[in-house]
Amino acid sequence: MMFQSTRDSRITASAAQAVCRGIAPDGGLYIPTAFPSLELDRLISLQNQPYVRLAEVILQPFFEDWPEGILKACLDRAYGSGRFDVPQLTPTRKLDEGFFVLELWHGPTAAFKDMALQFLPPLLAQSKKLAGDERTTVILTATSGDTGKAALEGFADQPGTRILVFYPSKGVSEIQRRQMVTQSGSNVDVVGIEGNFDDAQTAVKQLFADPVLAEKLAEKNMVFSSANSINFGRLAPQIVYYFKSYLNLISAGEVQPGEPVNFAVPTGNFGNILAGYYAKRMGLPIGKLICASNANHVLSDFFATASYNRNRPFIPTESPSMDILISSNLERLISHLAGPEETQKLMKHLADEGAYILSPEVFNRMRDLFAGGYIGDHQAREVIRRTFKNYHYLLDTHTAVAVGVYEEYLRQTGDPAKTIVLSTASPYKFPSAVLGALGEEGEGEGYQLLKRLSETTGTPIPPSLDKLWEKPIRFERIIPREAIRSYLSDRLSL
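Structure (tokenized):
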């Protein structure tokens, strides 16, 4: 299995090289040159096996040149360490006939990013060994909330690494902020920026592409890499839980083997839903991938019109991890559908003009696979209230967006396929908004909000959040977005 840049098929890398580099030299993202085909019957035979075993079978073809046992060791460390608060890791809950929720937030940071970022650190360590890379890896991460903490948790005190996380100072929830600024570890650094997530992500991409900075790093025996989903090593493990949820429905007698199932995914940077597309390409019977957006609905507009246009106001919402106008992983999908030459042209249009338009042929191919929709904060709050009233099931603000978009998709299409909604965060990460949606007082500080939500709903506070306010704050600095480069140079003594 080889990987190539989304923008130039001549730029290739092995799996280990793709994971180490994070991003291709031309600014493109690494994608597999082919998709392995998995036999559903074989996976069904593994449905009662531990998550690690299923993940090994699904991911091994991407790392087929690795010595036996290395991938399994990475998976054992990620998922077999007791860091998830339920033995199933990703339980599937039935809410109604044909309507299910896949809970992806039972890891150490109470967000779905743990499913990838508990795996990426050992994967990167092994990739460096296989690639003969003895440099210190500097992980640069821009976060809209959840990636930052999950990356910090995964890479804290990881030998041979430094990690710097940049977050929008006014664009994350208080829980998300406190999770990051209290992070322990001698190799971690966290800083807020005056701007939004797109500002942070653009600045980080510019750092990756800066040849002068790369030369200075080389002099210090350092190299950049990424923990964002632009790194294929971060994206790959997300494929697994799509297969796992489908096998869960087979085990429960809810679907027959081979029966198509839809997935509705709250979407910002397009990595989570892209993993579903990869699962489909590998043989999972997926009908539609329903891309759910909030008020920053650049993606749902794209799926409706073929026009991607980030030239619009940025709207802070109660689902901040989706407050994104530049969805990086969409480039991977376009490269798979249109080819690298066309992708390079479109990405240049995006960089120069902030917009691009797909050809009718590519757009039609995309619409066969995806549907899109969006709802705002008011509608999402109503979804939270109604879902708790009807099913006594508590949604976070992001999952509520996906449920609301799915309900509207169902009304418009009457699609009878069973649907799994990906639940990407614990509702306790956004207690103020969730309490407000339930008609309760959402004002207050810190731990009292968590207690009030627990008492109001009769649901438990996740263990990883229960002791959060006992931890000391380590990182309080906020800088202008223009100062990111100088801040990085100072911290790394470049």
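The first helix runs from residue 15 to 21. The chain has 23 helices and 16 strands.
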